[in-house]
């Protein structure tokens, strides 16, 4: 069935949204809802289908071609297809790396477009934004080195004859540039403030996860840059904003995960012993069994990091 559906997708065009969107969802869940041995075979089947990968390439490119102003407030069939495409590609990248599966056709993605999708948003639906951030997290974790993916539109190192102030950092962070990193961090912070108003747990989890992965990537590339990003004073204002809503508790999943991030990278100007004590006190007074799963997991990781 997986073979048949993947072949069917390869015969479609991106405009065949009614057929493609559920088909890509089937391929996505076939990868995730199966045993490890079957998962490895499923990845091999999908990556050997050149027509499917060419179709996925066209779907990803439609993200930048389809006009944002025409998008309705609700998720359109076109946007739903884009969500499925980005999530499936992120999964293929993940499992191809895990099983070192042979690649018969590469996918090409413009890094600048991906970053700008998160930085500027351009009225993109929340689910599409979450899907693109899931893809971004995957390539960051793989250090932009997947044999399945070709990154274009990337940062190039400055020439030796005209050195720039951030040239050393840009070279170390390649293919990212310092300017892109700071723009992305500020945009993720702004998204979290937006989430505080909209109360969207899915988006808040995706944003914090993306910020975590970004700092991990920076730390592996240049520890000084990572610590500099993690200790930005704007993070403190962000925490005050998140705690100033209706729920003033530190026991919010996004707050706990941010606190964990700051403890991990020793951002003492953002989180002090006072805040750590306050979180532990709130946890001691709470009924742990009644906490939502997202809060319980975030609290576990925070206490483990402390």
UniProtKB/TrEMBL annotation:
Under the heading InterPro entries, the entry gives: Immune_Signaling-Apoptosis_Reg
Superkingdom assignment: Eukaryota
Q: Name one GO biological process term.
A: meiosis I
Q: What is this protein called?
A: MEI1 protein
Originating organism: Thryothorus ludovicianus
């Amino acid at each position: 069935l997986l073979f048949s559906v993947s072949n069917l997708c390869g015969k479609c065009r991106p405009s065949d949204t009614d057929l493609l969107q559920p088909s890509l969802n089937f391929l996505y869940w076939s990868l995730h809802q199966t045993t490890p041995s079957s998962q490895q075979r499923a990845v091999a089947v999908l990556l050997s289908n050149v027509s499917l990968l060419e179709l996925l390439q066209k779907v990803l490119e439609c993200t930048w071609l389809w006009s944002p102003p025409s998008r309705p407030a609700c998720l359109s069939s076109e946007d739903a297809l884009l969500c499925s495409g980005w999530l499936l590609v992120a999964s293929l990248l993940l499992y191809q790396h895990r099983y070192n599966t042979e690649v018969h056709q590469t996918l090409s993605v413009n890094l600048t477009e991906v970053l700008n999708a998160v930085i500027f948003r351009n009225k993109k639906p929340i689910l599409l934004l979450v899907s693109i951030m899931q893809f971004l997290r995957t390539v960051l974790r793989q250090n932009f080195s997947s044999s399945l993916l070709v990154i274009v539109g990337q940062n190039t190192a400055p020439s030796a004859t005209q050195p720039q102030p951030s040239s050393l950092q840009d070279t170390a962070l390649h293919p990212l540039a310092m300017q892109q990193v700071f723009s992305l961090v500020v945009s993720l912070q702004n998204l979290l403030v937006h989430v505080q108003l909209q109360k969207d747990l899915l988006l808040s989890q995706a944003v914090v996860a993306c910020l975590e992965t970004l700092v991990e990537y920076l730390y592996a590339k240049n520890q000084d840059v990572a610590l500099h990003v993690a200790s930005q004073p704007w993070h403190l204002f962000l925490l005050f904003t998140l705690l100033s809503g209706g729920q003033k508790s530190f026991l919010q999943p996004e707050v706990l995960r941010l606190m964990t991030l700051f403890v991990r990278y020793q951002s003492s100007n953002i989180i002090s012993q006072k805040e750590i004590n306050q979180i532990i006190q709130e946890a001691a007074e709470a009924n742990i069994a009644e906490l939502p799963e997202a809060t319980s997991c975030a609290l576990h990781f925070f206490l483990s990091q402390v």
